[in-house]
TrEMBL record:
Its EC number is 2.7.1.35. Residues 7-235 form the Pyridoxamine kinase/Phosphomethylpyrimidine kinase domain. SUPFAM superfamilies: Ribokinase-like. It comes from the Bacteria. This is pyridoxal kinase.
Length: 266
């Protein structure tokens, strides 16, 4: 998140929720230090300094208490011009992550209500909508219903990733702009690999693009193209998937013009 936003010219003030020796997918015996007790002290200091923020961006959270802290942070520092983005990190592939439970789902549902933009994957969208079992989408009409239902929770923009294509093995990103009542879609090239962190990369490019003043469809294009480029730069090397993509190799391309607009109205 930090290098992407920095590369986009945005000063990042990070509020760490935990320190880990590695991420939690594919690694055993990782070291984890919970920083929940430190978060309020950091926030109190920022309040004393009268800091203000163009955007507030929330990603992985480790406990219901952290969700409450972030919710309070938004209430304290938000202004009429602040962009609030919540990536409701809960699960993937039809199931919760090992560190998540139903309490976290309930807490995240309340947090997305205070967001301007949310970026769930298809599994997280199903969890937020309290749909049982692995998510199954029958077509464009149904994913539109899901996006509207998520927008009804509070956010004005819903971006759902990893939406299965009706025909073929690829996926797409579907976005709903509640204010304009428009749906956008960007198809994602299929590559037979699964790298951790690509959801964080996607949401970070979306956040940076919107803060730079890009439109929603252009932000979708930039994010999909950048994630695809990062995956392509990594795929084909004899490199463990659990170690993620070669982010540093593609960072300079973040500020290049979008080479092709692939978004479409649906």
């Amino acid at each position: 998140m930090i290098p992407i936003l920095s590369a986009l010219g945005i000063q990042v003030c990070s509020l760490p929720t935990a320190i880990l020796s590695t991420h939690t997918g594919g690694f055993a015996n990782f070291h984890f230090r919970d920083l929940t007790s430190d978060m309020r002290y950091i926030i109190d200091h920022w309040r004393q300094l009268s800091l203000s923020f163009a955007g507030i961006y929330s990603g992985f959270l480790g406990s219901p208490e952290q969700i409450d802290i972030v919710s309070d942070f938004i209430k304290t520092f938000r202004t009429d011009s602040t962009l609030v983005v919540v990536d409701p990190v809960l699960g993937d592939d039809g199931k919760l992550y090992d560190t998540m439970d139903r309490c976290m789902v309930d807490g995240m549902r309340s947090l997305v209500a205070s967001a301007d933009v949310i970026t769930p994957n298809i599994t997280e969208a199903a969890l937020l909508l309290d749909k049982a079992g692995p998510p199954v989408i029958s077509g464009t009409k149904e994913i539109k219903i899901w996006a509207r239902a998520l927008a009804d929770l509070g956010p004005r923009c819903v971006i759902i990733t990893s939406v299965p294509e009706e025909h073929g093995r690829g996926t797409s990103v579907v976005a709903f702009d509640k204010d304009a009542s428009r749906f956008w879609k960007v198809a994602c090239p299929y590559i037979p690999a699964c790298y951790p962190g690509t959801g964080d990369i996607f949401a970070s490019v979306i956040t940076g693009s919107l803060l730079q003043g890009d439109s929603l469809p252009l932000s979708l294009d930039r994010a999909v193209q950048f994630v695809s480029m990062a995956i392509r730069a990594t795929f084909g090397h004899n490199f463990p998937e659990r170690e993620g993509v070669f982010l540093e190799r593609v960072l300079p391309s973040l500020n290049a013009p979008v080479s092709m607009s692939s978004f479409e109205l649906i």
